[in-house]
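Here is one chain, start to finish.
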Amino acid sequence: MRVFSTTNETFIILIDEYDVLVREQVQKALFDEFLSFLNGLFKSDTLRPAISLAYLTGILPIIRDKIQSKLNNFHEYTILDAGELSEFAGFIPEEVEGLCKEWGMDYEECRLWYDGYFQHGYEFYNPESVVMSILTQEYSNYWGKTSSYRVISDMINMNFKGTRDSVIRMLSGESIPVDIGMYLNTMTDFISKDDLFTYLIHVGYLAYDRQDKTCRIPNKEIREEWFRAISVIGDYEVTDRIIKESKELLYATLKGNETAVAAALDESHIHVTINRSYNNEDALQSAIYLAYIYALNKYTVIKEMTTGKGFADVVFIPFVPDIPAMIIELKHNKCAESAIDQIKEKKYFDSLKDYKGGLLFVGVNYDEKEKTHECRIERFEI
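Its structure:
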């Protein structure tokens, strides 16, 4: 704790030990003593008039008492709601683009690696990783060098009701609802998956959407940490295998191997619908995202893209050279050929008319009764 005297004989107090005490989980007696000290300092009628400003720094917000917060006279600026300070929560796009231009780095690749956090109309990047990528002149996972994926694995290993389904959905590219009001801001009082996810939002492993009240995995760097986390948890063995096999699935698709694509989707679809309706089209889209997770290294993936005379279910647009774009259309209880026909009839490829390169039409049909998939792939030149 640091105390600075001001000219009017009041004090500015800076406290930066608070968060360390929470995260290091010191003995309860010591922590309670520290909280009691802070409570006496900031809520005392005698001392309070002598304090002109006080702030506590850290990652986690002030611990909430089960009855009421003992330090409820602080205004909190957090990753959940930084209010008027949102602009300074991280590097904004203009700053990152300027750095990339100055140092000869690819801005779009930087965005894929480190972007993905939003608040109050501001989009921001992980500052530490942006700086490290500029210094090393290489885009890589710098998060893992300052923190461990075990933060994630320790949390999701608690396996509260609904945790596994929500994790698989987020790995598949979805946002999932989260109640941030449940969490007491401690390292011990976790009682639901909402508490786990709120904690992971605070430490940066998830991004939070205040308007929709949802969370998601924000970018490539953090996604790699999630992959590492699930690889050491037995309950996610199938998920880990699907992810690791997604590279081979992408190459099988590019080679036109329809049988391999259908077989991969059989497994992925069943896996992501353990707690959801198998015949839900959103579940099939999630299965495709999970099965093709490796494609995010080479493609921008757009769900229900406006194309031609309607909406294409899934469109893969490459941001690396020499690979084709892909339009995937989904059907159920029909045939894969009808999906290909719909792509052609509704001219879903029209929105890609400025794209110069090959294009694959991928038609997928799933049979509700047999729970199997059929795939047809056609190559089309724009």
